[in-house]
């Protein structure tokens, strides 16, 4: 057996081998050591190899999925090796023959299909990047839904696209793995290298044509050689990992960068579009706006939010759907109730395609088609927007398949086909006959038991069954002599004696057992055959079923956004090709939701007005006043508008944003040797080098990570570059009040400030953005609110007054008047008093038990203590 294990393991040196042995997957040698540590399970040993103990651990087959998920999340790949024959067949070849085994699947992060291993509301993309003669492309596929996309992509854009798609796994040529190490590390994606032959465009073309059964790919579009190479590598990898059982993939869709808003990785992270800075979904924009009720709708929501459109017609068609659902509130609510009962059609279809499905996936297709037909029935006659009309059209056309599944399946099928019982009675006469014999056989056995009890006079006689003896008659040991004596011994033949029972058989019982067992096995075989037939009928319509799933997701998204708009009082934004960013009463959707959930103060809405006359707002004001919130909320409003949603504002006019850049907050990147300031400068450089005149840039505290004059000069030059070279729209927050003078020199720069109110030395935040500049940053007051010791706050005021006085008196250098500061004038913190002797009054109080005092005694005690204090 170990020779077989080592041979198979040699074919998969970079994966853990799950070696099937009966009801367990066993792991040996180094695999066992690694898996035991990762899974926190016992490490044992089995025999010796080359004189040393063989490490071993194992996991039960029935619960293997949970262990697989843990291993995949910890970066392992797993080769699943199954028994390819029944052990009884192996024994026929000889007592020492080894059961035939082979790897049936290589489990990797990007090739998961099991429901328990995937997040229902998120795609699980497998991506591939290729380069051919100086050009490059990215392809990606989700085998759990069948979606397949490709786009030409310069290498410099790989990082932002990986941030947008967040693939679980990226396939690279062996020669590219090291070259792209920085990009893939920043994206946090699992990288799988493949040989150069996998990226050959000619071979890739052949693989794709074979996959889709066509002579040429021209019917799907015009693809470049790098695109074909990237797609071909994906198919090659799927053939390797799925052992020839390729998943159902839709025809490839070619995307273009110019059709979506470009958002780099840093901006996605800063704006917390789909993940909060803490790493989870909670606290992100997606969590705040996602009200979809289906898994497919949830995935579409994340896809749209990650890729806001730049195509005006597309945005407006999506808005029309949301507007229709907002106006038709009763229709919207009824439709959402119907959608709640829609299962995940895409993933059920995918599991059927790779032969990892069960009867419940058949039922999911049936239930989904049932709901689709009902939805089409009650909205089909309405005057719908174009996008909804196309969606409703795709809900129909499955009557024949739906009738077949309705007739064939029971209401609640079991999980596994091998359990049987999922085909409805009356669907197949042969199956009904086999079941009748199987089920009536149980009644016959009960009748035979009654006859044998009457024949023997032994009331405790039972007919039982196990997998070794089959059916047998069992009596207690006290009746053994009677059963073994004439005349009963002629009917009952002894089979087995145990400690307390004796077991017998009879000729009629053996004959009935054969009939019953054959009937049960025959019924199960018939059900398995019918399962394959139903699966084939579904797969024959896989293309149209995918369209139905897409239509249901589209309806779910439109009605979810409408429900959000109605309940949150959001407005439909005007989106056009201008450069306007005019927002009245804008709000931050995540912060507003958090304030409401905490029962705090209402969110203060603010206006923003950018466009041809005022491209840049220079925003000043103290920390904690809400500058960063204001910056982010306007960026999020632009994202929501271009994904086709309503926005949190009284009104909004959004000129199409081509690129969105955000530099808000910073942290070290120690793993790559970057300080906070270096991270800030790298991100700022990316903005200044890429932003075009239709970009929207939000910058917060540029230059704060270095010396004051260095930082001021960098912020000054950055603002000028945005105004003169990039000529984009920007919100620029700063504490460098010197920059406010630029509004007089740069014609498209306006000053704005977040208002505060000072009262008795404390600062009150109004969270209101107004035109104009702040006179100071109120840093000392904010420090006081944060809880700094009063001595520190007082000393800070002294230093601040001295510095400001020096500036007013025109010192050339701050160092000149810093020398005049009384550096050691800070009041020392009060020293703790030395412990004093306990007073007589304190001693007396220590002797008192208050609960035992009467009112009169308490009054007398007061007089007594007063006397002690005077003494």
Q: What's a quick, concise take on this entry?
A:
This is DNA mismatch repair protein MutS. This protein is involved in the repair of mismatches in DNA. It is possible that it carries out the mismatch recognition step. This protein has a weak ATPase activity. With 871 residues, this protein is of the alpha/beta class.
Task: Compile the SSE list and pairings.
Elements: H1 2-11, E1 16-21, E2 24-28, H2 29-39, E3 44-49, E4 52-60, H3 64-73, E5 78-83, H4 87-92, E6 101-107, E7 126-132, E8 135-142, E9 147-152, H5 158-165, E10 169-173, H6 174-177, H7 181-187, E11 190-194, H8 201-212, H9 225-241, E12 253-254, E13 262-263, H10 265-271, H11 285-289, H12 295-306, H13 312-327, H14 329-339, H15 345-353, H16 359-379, H17 386-393, H18 399-408, H19 429-456, E14 462-466, E15 470-476, H20 480-484, H21 488-491, E16 493-497, E17 501-505, H22 507-540, H23 542-568, E18 574-576, E19 581-586, H24 589-597, E20 606-610, E21 616-620, H25 627-643, E22 651-655, E23 659-663, H26 676-690, E24 696-700, H27 708-726, E25 729-733, E26 749-759, E27 762-771, H28 779-786, H29 790-808, H30 814-818, H31 840-847, H32 855-870
Parallel strand pairs: 1-5, 7-10, 9-12, 10-11, 13-23, 18-22, 21-25, 21-26, 23-24, 24-25
Antiparallel strand pairs: 1-2, 2-4, 3-4, 5-6, 7-8, 8-9, 14-15, 15-17, 16-17, 19-20, 19-22, 26-27
């Amino acid at each position: 057996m170990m020779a077989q294990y080592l041979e198979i393991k040699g074919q998969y040196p970079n994966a853990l081998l799950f070696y099937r042995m009966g009801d367990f997957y066993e792991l040996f040698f180094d695999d066992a050591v690694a898996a035991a540590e990762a899974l926190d399970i016992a490490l044992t040993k089995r025999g010796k190899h080359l004189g040393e103990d063989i490490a071993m651990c194992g996991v039960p087959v029935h619960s293997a999925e949970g262990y697989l998920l843990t291993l995949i999340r910890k970066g392992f790949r797993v080769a699943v090796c199954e028994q390819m024959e029944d052990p009884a067949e192996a024994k026929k070849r000889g007592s020492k023959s080894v059961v035939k085994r082979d790897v049936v699947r290589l489990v990797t992060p990007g090739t998961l299909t099991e429901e328990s291993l995937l997040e229902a509301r998120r795609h699980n993309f497998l991506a591939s990047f290729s380069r051919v003669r100086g050009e490059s492309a990215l392809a990606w596929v989700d085998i759990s839904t069948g979606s397949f996309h490709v786009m030409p992509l310069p290498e410099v854009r790989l990082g932002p696209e990986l941030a947008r798609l967040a693939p679980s796994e990226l396939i690279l040529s062996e020669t590219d793995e090291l070259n792209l190490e920085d990009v893939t590390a920043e994206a946090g994606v699992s990288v799988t290298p493949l040989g150069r032959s996998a990226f050959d465009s000619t071979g890739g073309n052949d693989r794709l044509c074979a996959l889709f059964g066509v002579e040429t790919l021209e019917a799907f579009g015009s693809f470049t050689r790098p695109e074909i190479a990237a797609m071909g590598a994906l198919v090659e990898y799927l053939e390797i990992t799925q052992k020839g059982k390729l998943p159902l993939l839709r025809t490839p869709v070619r995307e273009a960068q110019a059709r979506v808003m470009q958002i780099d990785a840093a901006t996605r992270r800063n704006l917390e579009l789909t993940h909060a800075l803490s790493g989870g979904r909670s606290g992100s924009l997606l969590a705040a706006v996602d009200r979809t009720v289906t898994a497919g709708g949830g995935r579409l929501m994340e896809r749209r939010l990650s890729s806001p459109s730049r195509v005006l017609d597309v945005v407006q068609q999506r808005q029309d759907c949301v507007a229709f659902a907002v106006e038709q509130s009763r229709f919207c609510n009824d439709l959402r109730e119907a959608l709640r009962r829609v299962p995940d059609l895409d993933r059920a279809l995918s599991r059927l395609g790779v032969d990892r499905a069960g009867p419940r996936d058949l039922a999911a297709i049936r239930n989904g088609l049932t709901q689709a037909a009902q939805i089409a029935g009650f909205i089909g006659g309405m005057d719908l927007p174009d996008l909804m009309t196309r969606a409703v059209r795709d809900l129909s056309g499955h009557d024949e398949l739906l009738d077949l599944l309705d007739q064939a399946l029971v209401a609640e099928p079991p999980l596994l086909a091998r359990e049987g019982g999922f085909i409805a009675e009356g669907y197949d006469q042969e199956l009904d006959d086999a079941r009748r014999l199987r089920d009536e056989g149980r009644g016959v056995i009960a009748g035979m038991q009654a006859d044998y009890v009457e024949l023997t006079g032994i009331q405790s006689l039972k007919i039982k069954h196990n997998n070794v003896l089959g059916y047998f008659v069992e009596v207690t040991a006290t009746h053994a002599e009677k059963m073994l004596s004439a005349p009963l011994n002629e009917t009952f033949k002894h089979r087995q004696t145990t400690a307390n029972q004796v077991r017998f058989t009879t000729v009629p019982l053996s004959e009935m057992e054969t009939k019953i067992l054959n009937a049960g096995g025959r019924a199960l075989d018939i059900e398995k055959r019918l399962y394959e037939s139903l699966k084939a009928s579904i797969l024959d319509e896989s293309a149209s079923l995918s369209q139905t799933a897409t239509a249901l997701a589209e309806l779910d998204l439109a009605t979810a956004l409408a429900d959000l708009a109605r309940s949150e009082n959001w407005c439909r934004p005007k989106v056009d090709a201008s450069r306007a960013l005019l927002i009245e009463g804008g709000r931050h959707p995540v912060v507003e939701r958090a304030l409401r959930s905490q029962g705090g103060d209402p969110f203060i809405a603010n206006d923003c007005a950018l466009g041809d006359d005022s491209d840049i707002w220079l925003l000043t004001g103290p920390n904690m006043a809400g500058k960063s919130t204001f910056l982010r909320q306007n960026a999020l409003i632009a994202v929501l508008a271009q994904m086709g949603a309503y926005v949190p504002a009284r009104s909004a006019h959004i000129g199409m944003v081509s690129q969105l850049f955000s530099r808000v907050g910073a942290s070290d990147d120690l793993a790559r040797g970057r300080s906070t300031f270096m991270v800030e400068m790298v991100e700022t450089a990316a903005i200044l080098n890429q932003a075009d005149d239709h970009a929207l840039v939000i910058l917060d505290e540029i230059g704060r990570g270095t010396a004051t004059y260095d930082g001021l000069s960098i912020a000054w030059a950055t603002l000028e570059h945005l105004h003169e070279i990039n000529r984009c729209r920007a919100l620029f927050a700063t504490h460098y009040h010197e920059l406010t003078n630029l509004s007089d020199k740069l014609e498209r720069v306006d000053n704005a400030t977040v208002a505060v109110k000072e009262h008795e030395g404390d600062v009150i935040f109004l969270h209101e953005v107004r035109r104009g500049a702040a006179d100071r940053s109120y840093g000392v007051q904010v420090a006081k609110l944060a809880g700094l010791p009063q001595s520190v706050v007082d000393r800070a005021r002294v230093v601040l007054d001295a510095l400001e006085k020096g500036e007013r008196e025109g010192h050339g250098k701050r160092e000149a008047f810093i020398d005049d500061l009384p550096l050691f004038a800070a009041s020392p913190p009060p020293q703790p008093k030395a412990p004093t002797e306990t007073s007589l009054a304190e001693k007396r109080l220590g002797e008192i038990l208050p609960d035992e005092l009467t009112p009169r005694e308490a009054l007398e005690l007061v007089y007594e203590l007063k006397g002690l204090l005077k003494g």
